[in-house]
Amino acid sequence: MSKKQSFSEKCYSLLRKVPHGRVTTYKAIAEALGTKAYRVVGNAMHKNPYSPRVPCHRVVCSDSKVGGFALGKRRKIEMLKKEGLQIEKGKVKSFEKRLFEFN
DNA sequence: CGGTTGACCAAGT
DNA sequence: GACTTGGCCAACC
Q1: A43 nearest nt, CA–C1'
Q2: Whole-angstrom Cα distance, residue A47 to residue A71?
């Protein structure tokens, strides 16, 4: 564990806490880190060097929309469905219910 | 140090 | 519901 983590690396660490079958938002992560850099979170996910280690596919938009994915959002949706989530027209069903919050 | 870049967000048209 | 606009901010060059 390094001591000096970049903002992006902090995102990964935080995201790692998200349990199976739950989702979070770019905004939630940014705010949890004490900033409003929503976009930076997205940037970090796009780079995501920790692919399987960090569940980047569990991050969605605040509007309940699935958002994007490096390998295509279609793949992202499939993975989420596999985790028990229900997706409809690119949006997460019961989004707020499935939303995991960092305390 | 300035400019560009986004897997975003919110409000408006 | 699709599209536009302005704002936000770390990382990169």
Answers
A1: B6
A2: 11
